[in-house]
Design brief:
Shape: globular
Number of strands: 22
Helix content: 25-40%
Strand content: 15-25%
Radius of gyration: 28 Å
Strand order of the largest sheet: 12-18-17-16-15-13-14
Length: 677
């Protein structure tokens, strides 16, 4: 990015972003009544001409002309401090979207200010959405506000975006300490806001949003104290209620054809209340709903999006694969390619079989274990969800925990008579079961880190005990790493804890976000599968070429960058998880935070959470209130107390700041609504 100052107040800004999606191509700032300067991207077919004209209406006419008169989206916000109203309109122009920002100024703060009047700004971007434009990229930086009001207004106005704050110094020599406190909480200054040595005088700060002359420290309006500025740090702009009108309409339509309007129960928001937004697109760490609202995503399609949504190289791999054919019903070379990558990450998986879901993987693994051992019984653990196969729907977590369903109708007792459900993290219960069913237990399936009752880590020595007991008793140990695989480490929980199971179930990240699962393990066990052995398992779409392409691109990236990816995930997750927990403590809200790597849960209870029983004592009403407040602030958490949250490498410093700012307000609201004991 680069900014050019012109003589006096005649200046313009020009941003260039190499056509990267969602980045600014050019911007235009204008003072009320004058079109001060303009520089456009030649690829936008507008040329580099300067335009000079009087009258605010020119901007509107210009935008409408470019857009062919079509406004595709509108939104407005109100400044809590000044009462100013900010309008934003998106015009579609071919592959571009032109955003017209109009500020209605309602306050006169003395002769040195611009005073009441209108302020307009126009800028263009590729593939950008209004919510992203107005809040994430802080559209105020593309509006040139002059004078003392400009200094103060910019410092504060740019602390909005739901806490997504850039360090907007913009005043004095390198910025004032007040500006730093108001605008970033110690976060780094973007490159285009740093002082280039020797290029400009100390009294100019090259920030495109704030090209104002100052003399050292900022001059604040006399009626506004420094203490007042501090109090409003990240709440200057009060967002008008987000609209979900279109999502509601689509949900009502869906309910005519889909039970509850959903294809997976937890999506219905029954546990947290409110209307579920219907998502139309995603990119990086964000989701956009049908109404244009943007959300910072902390469930990542329930785990797969470790690289962020629509990672370019993954999208490219899927597009190239689709161009060759979407499904063949025959074997392809890419199946062995992905299997080899999985084996490299999970050495215990000597051979594997691809399926289309985690449910298929777990039910097939148990069938194979029964055949290999010649035994009928198997052990699962309370709160661990291994898919919706009949025999596994016993004291399961995930949606069953969310909806309070102890079991599922339609599952005969005969189907589950060989299922033994035990409490997680209880070695004595496991020993007792093997005594009671001596020589009858085929296998034990476990989430090495529980994710479907919220994140619950294993107690020290617990997984080692399971490995020792199963090996001693001749039973197979199955790790369900559908959720933890490739997430806690490249080799999942078994790498993290140094445990080698007999069989492993994989999914989610394995398919790069496309329907894909796998089960595998020791070669002698896997060779019992047809066509080599007597255990039948098949699937029309197993090893689908699109899923294989996405998986190869995703897993390949993790392998290539394992040293940096997992270190980044650990650092970011720790900052977010511990930061929100501290905010809760400061607000007087009882929260227990459990985290392993980049999966975590804030349980609304003051007690330790070590199993499903202790997790179920959480205050789900408080969680629901917290969830709604975070969603209103643009942060989407899993809509259940009993689901782990996830983040990916697309979550950076801006996303951390946005999350913590939203959590501070949300926890304050929870504390205020919680009756005293």
């Amino acid at each position: 990015s680069r900014s050019n100052a012109c003589a006096g107040n005649d200046f313009f800004t020009f941003h260039h972003a190499d056509d990267k999606p969602g980045k600014i191509i050019f911007s235009l700032g204008v003072k009320a009544g004058h079109l001060r300067g303009f520089a456009a991207d030649e690829r936008a077919a507008i040329g580099a001409a300067r335009i000079r004209h009087a009258g605010d209406d020119l901007l509107r006419r210009f935008a409408v002309q470019l857009a062919g008169g079509q406004i595709i989206q509108k939104k407005q916000w109100r400044s809590a401090l000044y009462g100013n109203v900010i309008h934003a309109m998106v015009h579609q122009v071919g592959a571009h979207r032109v955003v017209h920002v109009h500020l209605e100024r309602n306050l006169q703060l003395g002769p040195d200010t611009v005073g009441a009047g209108n302020q307009h700004g126009i800028f263009m971007a590729r593939g950008i959405q209004l919510e992203e434009t107005a809040k994430a990229t802080n559209f105020a930086e593309h509006m040139l506000v002059e004078g003392t009001l400009g200094q103060v207004f910019n410092a504060l106005f740019n602390t909005v975006a739901a806490g997504n704050v850039h360090a907007r110094i913009g005043v004095g020599k390198g910025g004032s300490s007040l500006g730093k406190r108001l605008a970033g909480h110690g976060r780094r200054i973007p490159k285009f806001c740093r002082m280039p040595a020797g290029r400009m005088s100390p009294s100019h700060v090259p920030c495109s949003h704030n090209m104002v002359r100052t003399e050292g420290k900022p001059s604040l309006p006399g009626s506004i104290s420094v203490a007042s500025w501090r109090r409003v740090q990240t709440s200057i702009l009060v967002g008008m209620p987000r609209s979900l009108e279109r999502s509601r309409q689509l949900q009502q339509r869906a309910e005519k054809f889909l039970p509850g309007g959903v294809d997976s129960p937890v999506r219905a928001f029954r546990a947290v209340g409110g209307d579920p937004p219907l998502i139309v697109r995603a990119e990086g760490a964000y989701l956009w709903d049908a109404d244009g609202n943007r959300y910072l995503d902390y469930f990542g399609s329930w785990g797969p999006m470790i690289l962020g949504h629509a990672a370019p190289h993954v999208v490219r791999a899927v597009q190239e694969a689709a161009a060759r054919g979407t499904s063949f019903g025959a074997s392809t070379p890419t199946e062995a390619d992905l299997a080899e990558l999985a084996h490299g990450a999970f050495p215990s998986v000597e051979m594997l079989r691809f399926v289309s879901s985690g449910t298929e993987a777990t039910m097939s693994a148990i069938r194979l274990a029964r055949a290999f051992t010649g035994r009928k019984f198997f052990i699962k653990f309370e709160g661990c969800y291994h898919g919706h196969a009949d025999a596994l729907l016993v004291k399961a977590g995930s949606g069953m925990a969310t909806l309070g369903i102890p079991g599922s109708a339609g599952v005969p007792e005969e189907t589950i008579q060989h299922t033994i459900a035990l409490p997680y993290n209880d070695v004595a219960a496991v020993e007792e079961a093997f005594v009671r069913y001596k020589g009858k237990i085929a296998c034990m399936i476990v989430e090495p880190v529980v994710g479907n009752a919220g994140c619950i880590p294993p107690s020290p020595g617990y997984l080692e005990a399971l490995r020792e007991i199963t090996r001693r008793e001749g039973a197979l140990l199955i790790f369900d790493e559908v959720m933890t695989g490739f997430r806690l480490a490249l080799g999942g929980a078994q790498e993290l804890y140094g445990i080698q199971p007999d069989m492993t179930c994989l999914g989610k990240i394995l398919g790069g976000g496309l329907p894909c699962g796998a089960f595998g393990g020791r070669a002698e066990i896997m060779r019992m599968l047809a066509p080599l052995g007597p255990v039948y398992q098949a699937g029309t779409l197993s090893g689908n070429p699109l899923a294989m392409a996405a998986g190869i691109a995703t897993v390949g990236h993790l392998i290539e960058h394992r040293d940096t990816v997992y270190a980044q995930l650990e650092k970011t997750s720790a900052t977010v998880a511990e930061g929100v927990a501290q905010i809760a403590r400061d607000a007087g809200v009882s929260v227990t935070m459990n985290r392993v790597g980049s999966m975590f849960t804030w349980f609304f209870t003051g007690d330790a959470v070590t199993d499903y029983s202790s997790a179920s004592r959480s205050d789900t009403a408080q969680f629901a209130a917290f969830h709604r407040a975070m969603l209103d602030a643009g942060v989407w958490l899993p809509p259940s107390q009993f689901e782990a949250a996830f983040l990916g490498i697309a979550h950076g410093e801006e996303e951390i700041a946005m999350t913590l700012a939203a959590a501070k307000q949300a926890m304050a609201a929870v504390a205020k609504s919680t009756p005293l004991a």
